[in-house]
Backbone:
């Protein structure tokens, strides 16, 4: 299936723009010759289990995954190209107002709720992985995502982004939905203050929510993102 998909893409698509290339893999925008539409093509080393699950999911705050193939530890993914502004770029202009942060965070909670109920943990919630398509926040990039397994003591691979990754992502225990809640809390604080909560914590009601999201002990955080969304 991997070879078949790679050949099909080669026959029907043209390279358009390279977005990222690392030792682990590459992400690029490709152009479908017949329709003229743009798509995202991911090719990386790892597991494609998360993308196989995502193929079956439709959510307004998640991209559509069209195809996924895996062979000998190499993964190939064809997904929707989400047109919009990267949240990281928007934050270069300064913090957002509290109403905008609440709206974006609530939509990310919707995306995470769908993921968590499908047994997935994103593990890399950060501004770079949020695209603003008009008024809709779209959570992207599931290369670091994993399937939660009960009674496992720790993750097999340590993945995530320093500053946003929860303490348990450094191998202390297994990541679960509360790990994404931690990252979401950091993201909300940065949207509000421009700083990590360890440097400057947001005030008011949002500060109370963020403080609980980012507790070092995962058992002291919210149990699920629905609780966070309801408070927002």
Residues:
């Amino acid at each position: 299936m991997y070879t078949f998909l790679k050949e099909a893409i080669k026959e029907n698509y043209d390279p358009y723009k390279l977005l990222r290339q690392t030792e682990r893999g590459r992400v690029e925008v490709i152009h479908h010759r017949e329709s003229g539409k743009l798509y995202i093509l991911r090719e990386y080393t790892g597991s494609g289990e998360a993308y196989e699950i995502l193929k079956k999911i439709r959510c307004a705050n998640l991209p559509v995954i069209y195809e996924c193939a895996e062979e000998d530890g190499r993964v190939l993914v064809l997904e929707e190209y989400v047109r919009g502004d990267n949240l990281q770029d928007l934050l270069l202009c300064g913090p957002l107002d509290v109403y905008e942060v609440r709206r974006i965070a609530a939509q990310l909670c919707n995306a995470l709720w769908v993921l968590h109920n499908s047994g997935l943990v994103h593990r890399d919630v950060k501004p770079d992985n949020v695209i603003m398509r008009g008024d809709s926040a779209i959570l992207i990039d599931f290369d670091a995502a994993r399937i939660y397994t009960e009674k496992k003591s720790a993750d097999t691979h340590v993945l995530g982004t320093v500053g946003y990754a929860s303490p348990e992502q450094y191998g202390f225990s297994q990541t679960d939905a509360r790990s994404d809640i931690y990252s979401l809390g950091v993201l909300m604080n940065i949207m509000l203050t421009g700083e990590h909560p360890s440097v400057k914590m947001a005030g008011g009601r949002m500060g109370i929510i963020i403080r609980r999201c980012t507790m070092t002990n995962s058992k002291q955080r919210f149990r699920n993102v629905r609780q966070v969304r309801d408070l927002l």
